[in-house]
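Follow-up to my earlier ticket, as requested here are the two runs.
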Amino acid sequence: MMSESAVRRLIEVFEAISSAIEAERDHLSELDGAIGDADHGITMAIGFSAVTGELARTDAGSAGLSGVMTAAASAFLNAVGASTGPLYATAFRRAAQALEGRDTLDIEACSLLIQAVASGIGERGKGQRGDKTMLDVWLPAADAAAQAVAAAKSTAAFWADVTAAAENGASATRSMVATKGRAARVGERSLGHMDPGAASAVLIIRAMAQTLREG
């Protein structure tokens, strides 16, 4: 039963993410309008809505945590073929590999999931910290997760550390000039604006924290 309840919680995580993205959809697109094509909120909402639709049809008893992440990767990529789609699809596939054989969402599993997402996005987007992208959120969050596990922190403290690192990372993108993605086209004009991908990454991590920190 432990595995099935963990699978249900992971599906709940995606439902929480989808709700959070939908609620901030217009704001994310406004952020994107300052430096991109003003469609980031719409794109992310479509992607996560497709994921929750797919997971609603998933049998929690037989899927496994890895199977949920694999289904999420395919659904996101099918719904959002361009830009963010391949990044999160790769991220979720890496997370599926990291969760293979695991049947609980303890902080060690959550840390592996976050680190896998960060490395998947970095690998696919060929980016690094300071490029003014979602990696400025995911990489610090992954570091904070690994450190919290090493320090044997409580579940609540783990998520507090991860969320703080994510929020600080997103705020830092305001003082960066974009060098990657569509935002790089506007160069210096990207200064002063939070990266929309970083903003949506924070929403994802907050939704994860809210769903899993009771564990």
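Run two:
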Amino acid sequence: MKFSVFYQQALARKGGEQALKSLLPPVTEKHRLAEVGDDRYLSEITRCIFKAGFVWRVIENKWPDFEAAFEGFVPAYWQQVPPEVLEQLATDERIVRNMQKIRTVPENARMIMDVAKDHGSFGQFLAQWPSTDQVGLLLYLKRNGERLGGNSAQYFLRRVGWDGFILSHDVVTALTRAGILDASPASKKGMSQAQEAFNRWHEETEMPISHLSRIVSFTVDN
């Protein structure tokens, strides 16, 4: 299926080209990704983990307090944080007191520090990973991080501006209706089917994959 089919549907639903363009997510240039500090990546990973299965607005409103409670999310500190600090956070009213999610911070800090040893920084690692192999990156984050399966890693990548798709409910519905996706979107097969389609449309349109993904989502009734 040509991407123009999705594009025309999205145009009709969103009121024209300018309205559609205003809704597309920003894409960060690779050199900008490389310049972002590792503390910001740990912060964004944690934000997406805490949002999962929770009211997003609550997490966003509390996020300045999260930053204060986690002292800026410096990976070098959190990778070896004493257990008693985590226990204190579990009673800290400034944040959402979910101990399972709190415990992801040192685990993901260790992943970031390990990556930085090999690539210079986590940002440089993200910058060199091609958008045409998002499946490989998602599997890496799931295997080496904590609670980065499902859509959490996809939303993290979108928040930092890495150019990739999100297999949201609307995107999955649209791809399934089009006969592109016939496997679970959480499976490697399903993600690979989506990747193949987005790669093909990227070559066809020269549009960022994140824009293609968002446009596809607009073809489904909300």
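The only thing I checked on run two: Residues 39 and 74 are 5 Å apart (CA to CA). Let me know what else you need.
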